[in-house]
Write a structure and sequence with these properties.
Length: 311
């Protein structure tokens, strides 16, 4: 009982990884702890993680989404007649927007926006993760099919080289492509600091993502420690796509409401029914950081549920 109470208070956490028990301490630990009424909850949609389905199921009508960071300070005001324009001071109207395009904002971009626009509010993030094999395969076929349908929209996640190889060659050539930033996207969504200059959120600037990775000097171990610090200090809840039942159970405990019944059409994978095991193993080789992150979140979810139930 004492352990669970300390967990929910954000003092420390206990999680089992690689059959070892480790205790970590942070400035605060809010992951899988009770959401507070005064908090502003933001949903971070990592591409091809089933995010649209998770948003509809858990948070639609109860939280803010990526594009809600738009404001005169953080991004352009939506021009749709269905949205009310913000009441801004003269100073705010005169300020130059940080972003002109705010699609799929990540953690660093949320932080930058909070500093500009929402610094006096208690901001926390919720999101969903997905096993990297299925996430990468889904991204590949999603992008390829949209190109075949001649869709001309904001889906510009790939460099020209990724597009050429992805459209003209098969998935193996694309997976093995040097500097393919589709790999380890989930880790990037957390690690990127949001400070690269540009008019779009960085997902729409693939060359800048590539440059960011090339400039990294952190070791894999340091990145893992940074990932743990980020999620424990800033995320209230992370659902795991492959662990829907446990994710639902934790959600109901923390948010004191049941998840909605959602048609899973938007949750369908974009991959074919069968892919050679060798291709799946190859994808894992290029996504070790994302695999570690997925396993870490999954293990933490399972361990905290167990602790809460045993209290």
């Amino acid at each position: 009982m004492l352990i669970v109470g300390a967990i929910l208070a954000g003092i420390f956490f206990l999680v089992v990884t690689n059959k070892e028990e480790q205790i970590h301490s942070y400035k605060r630990d809010i992951l899988y702890s009770q959401v507070q009424k005064h908090e502003k909850v933001w949903f971070m949609h990592i591409i091809k993680t089933g995010g649209t389905w998770a948003w509809d199921k858990y948070f639609k009508g109860h939280a803010l989404m990526n594009d809600d960071i738009k404001s005169k300070r953080c991004g352009r005001i939506a021009s749709q007649s269905s949205r009310k324009k913000e009441r801004l001071t003269k100073k705010e109207k005169d300020e130059k927007a940080m972003l002109q395009w705010y699609y799929h904002a990540n953690f660093g971009e949320f932080e930058e926006c909070w500093r500009k626009r929402f610094q006096k509010q208690a901001n926390v993030i919720v999101t969903q993760v997905r096993h990297p094999i299925d996430r990468v395969i889904s991204e590949y076929y999603f992008y390829k099919r949209r190109n075949n349908l001649n869709k001309t929209d904001k889906i510009n996640w790939w460099t020209p080289n990724m597009v050429n190889v992805g459209i003209e060659d098969d998935i193996i050539e694309w997976v093995m492509l040097k500097d393919n930033m589709a790999h380890n996207r989930q880790a990037f969504w957390l690690l990127y600091d949001g400070k690269t200059k540009g008019r779009k959120t960085i997902v729409g600037r693939p060359e800048d993502i590539l440059l960011w990775w090339q400039k990294q000097t952190r070791s894999e171990k340091e990145m893992k420690e940074d990932l743990k610090k980020i999620i424990h200090e800033n995320f209230r809840y992370i659902s795991v796509m492959e662990e829907a039942e446990k994710s639902d159970e934790m959600f109901e405990i923390l948010f004191e409401r049941k998840p909605k019944e959602v048609n899973k059409k938007s949750h369908k994978s974009n991959k074919p029914n069968e892919l050679a095991e060798a291709i799946r193993d190859l994808i894992l080789d290029y996504n070790k950081l994302d695999l570690w992150l997925w396993e870490y979140v999954k293990n933490t979810l399972e361990q905290r549920l167990k602790q809460i139930k045993s209290a």
